[in-house]
Amino acid sequence: MAQAVEKSVVEREVALARQRTTRWSQTLGPWVPWLLIGGFAAWSAVARTDQFVVGVIVGSLYGLAAVGLTLIYGIARVSHFAHGDVMMFAAYLAFFALTGAVVGSQTGDVVFPFHLGQLPGATEPIWRFSFGYGLVLAILIGATLAVPVLLAIDRFVYQPLLRRGSSTAILAVASLGVAISMRGVMLLIWGPTGRRYVGGIRTTVDIPGLPRIVADQFFIMLAAGVLATAAYVVLYRTRLGTAMRAMADNADLARASGIDIAATRRWTWVVGGGLTAAAGCLLALQSQLSPELGFILLLPIFASAILGGIGSPHGAFLGGLIVGVVGEVAVGLGVISPGYKMAVIFVMLIAVILLRPRGLLGAQS
Amino acid sequence: MTRRGNLLAIVIVALITAFLVGLPLLRTGSISSVVSFLVPSLATMAIFAIVCIGLNVQWGYTGIFNFGVVGFFMVGAYTAAIVTKSPADGQFATYIGGLGDALAAVPLPGAGAWLPFLVAIIAAAALSAALALPLAWPIVRLREDYLAIALIGAAEVLRRIATEERWLVNGSRGLGGIPRPLAGWVNADAYNYVFLLIVVVLLLLVYVLVDRGIRSPWGRVLRAIREDEDATAAAGKDVVAFKLQGFVLGAAIMGAAGALFAFQQGAVSPETFTHFFGTFIFWAMLIAGGSGNMVGTIVGVYVIWGLWSTTLQLQGFDLPAFVEGRIPHLRDTLVGVIIVVVLLVNPRGLVPERARVSRWLDRRVAAMRRSEAAGD
Q1: SS3 label, residue A108
Q2: Disulfide engineering: A279 pairs with which of A61, A153, A158, B136, CB 3.0-4.6 Å?
Q3: Interface contact A180-B336, CB threshold 8 A
Q4: What is the mean pLDDT of residues A180-190?
Q5: Which pLDDT band, with edges at 50, 70 and 90, does A363 fall under?
Q6: 3-state DSSP: chain A helix, strand, coil percent, rounded to 5?
């Protein structure tokens, strides 16, 4: 008996001694992902500038949507598989506000009167953009109108399920149902063919030493920057943001410290949903509108949120940038077909889940 | 409560049946055309029922929500196509495999009519399972929603591969001219009946096998995992291994169903296997019918696919153009709305799972009741 105690004491001493002698791999270990990311970013910015720029643009939009996803997961406790369709739905709302068009009974569209395109000079291109102030207003309206839709879905679908004590799995299946319904509504109103906000050729801008950039992409970059800044201010510089992050971190502690859970939940849908909706409108400006795109968008957005660390808004934004740039640069190398962009993102997702399931900036326990 | 639930299920099934028989009858006015419409439709239902049994093993019994069903269904269908077809001519179509002629030459009685198809179904199930295992093995021990998004991703990647790789499965053109099992033995008019018979027999086979498995101690562990993973682990069960087994079994069943689907359609292409057609609709069937319940699953398939084909029938009537063009989309929307409404109103579905631990316990309880009654 005494021997056994002594032995365990010796073992503990040895273990402690081992812990004290730090190895180089332990010191360097936490930095390895950051060195890799920094190195890749620097290399692609110099050697693959074209794809890097597009990657940053698309990635910042993935990032904004992933901030919404991570907040909704952390605070509303919903694995939101309708997230991609919410983005597309908001984009279609903006499209409707701008053009007033819905798909007709046979071919062609039925155009409703009273749309923004009718305002004087609304479609007159600003600077070298392909669109006028009408589209800017339309995007604001689309993102705003998507928020009450989300609040209603939360009020009438997710909250009743949560109150009944449904598992996260049931909520995920319910959100799949919501996604399918939203896709169906988009098909009913706007039809299956892809659409663009503005037709025609896009003007590019030449800046010496930089790749040619489509003028519209400057607008997307600017808008994404404004949204990201606004999100940062709300989340990290206001009481509401602190409450939201506290709830995402630990709901019980947040409740115990007197945070109004129901109000914070509603605000999460407003802030997270609004960001997602705006990102959806901008993504539709970058590529196109199509009811089928929503579900596929789930892959890069979840990848961004998981890479950043679920529950961490700034991590999600960073994750979005990484997913966007890696996706664009990988298919830009010419080794694999552009059709495999989602495959690259899929491989990244699997790698993150396997190597670092808590993500870059998630709580490491 | 349960009696009222049963009544609702019976009323809905009766309504669907009335639609399925009534609408084509109204439109054409002849019984024989109704039958010729119903027979292929029933075969499709039987194939979808097999997929849903696979999904039920994953979701209803193991609690894994697979949002990438289309991946396994598609792999099964393509596998069946390249096993049963003749070798590629390389000019109009390029694909690997093409084992049909080789298998037909095997010296077994009438090998050409059945052997390639048997091999195809087994290969489809095996390949599907072989894809499911490495995908789920590392992720299944993490969070369930990680597995769900990984499965969506895998399904999308498989769809991309089918579209992009011409050498593998002929790219976006797809594969046509897939032979049909036992086609040489019966004349073409009667073939639909024979095919219906084949798929129904296979459905019964899968049904019985899975039902036995679920009622066995193995199935009890699966259901225990679904209810409370930690408690099951505390009882000394290897939760990860059981979940993997359930998941892979489900994927194999989906693959086999995909093979049957390929035989029925006679052609496969990447456009057939959308997320909607290959994943969403099966979820609606499972949720509507009642997950964790074999009878419920089949009722769900009947109801959802019945609604689906009924709305197709509506297009034959003189409807306003505004409505007629939108019927397919209305139908798509309905699939999502049904999932949400069933989860909200009656999450156990039309035919709820029976709370049952084991047949042995049922018998014990019944015996005890009897002896009590005898004692009184």
Answers
A1: coil
A2: A61
A3: yes
A4: 95
A5: low
A6: 75, 5, 25
Helix ranges (H only) for A48-167 are 49-71, 83-99, 133-153, 159-163
Mean pLDDT confidence for A228-240: 93
The whole-model pTM stands at: 0.91
Alpha-carbon distance A151 to A176, whole Å? 17
**Residue B275's pLDDT band (boundaries 50, 70, 90)?**
very high
Q: How many domains does chain A have?
A: 1
CA-closest candidate to residue A172, choices B62, B353, B143, B273? B143
Question: What's the CATH code of the domain at B206?
Answer: 1.10.3470
> What residues make up the domain containing B328?
39-375
* Cα of A349 to nearest chain B Cα, Å: 7
A306 vs chain B: nearest CA distance in angstroms? 9
A6: pLDDT strictly greater than 80: no
**Alpha-carbon torsion angle A312, A157, A150, B273, nearest 10:** 80
Q: Which B residues 57-86 touch A at CB under 8 Å?
A: 59, 63, 65, 67
**For all residues of chain A together, what is the average pLDDT?**
88
* pLDDT greater at residue B189 or residue B333: B333
Q: What is the pLDDT of residue A20?
A: 64
Bridge-based pairing of strands A101-103 and A109-111 is: antiparallel
A310 pLDDT band (50/70/90 cuts)? confident
Give the gap in angstroms from C-alpha A16 to the nearest C-alpha of chain B. 30
Name, in order, each residue with C-beta under 8 angstroms of B31's C-beta and a sequence gap of 6 or more. Answer: B25
Residues in CB range of B104: below 8 A, 6 or more apart: B111, B112, B115, B116
Is B43 inside a domain boundary? yes
Domain that holds residue A130: 67-295
Asked if B336 and A178 touch (Cβ cutoff 8 Å), the reply is yes
In single-letter form, the type of residue at position B268 comes to V
Spatial distance between the Cα atoms of A221 and A233, rounded to a whole number of angstroms? 18
Helix (H) or strand (E) run with residue B57 in it: none
* Any domain includes A100: yes
For range A321-339, the mean pLDDT: 91
Which of the residue ranges A76-85, B11-20, B91-100 has the most confident prediction, judged by mean pLDDT?
A76-85
Establish if B2 belongs to a structural domain. no
Average pLDDT, chain B: 88
Contact between residue A159 and residue A77 where contact means Cβ atoms under 8 Å apart: no
The yes-or-no verdict on residue A224 having pLDDT over 80 is yes
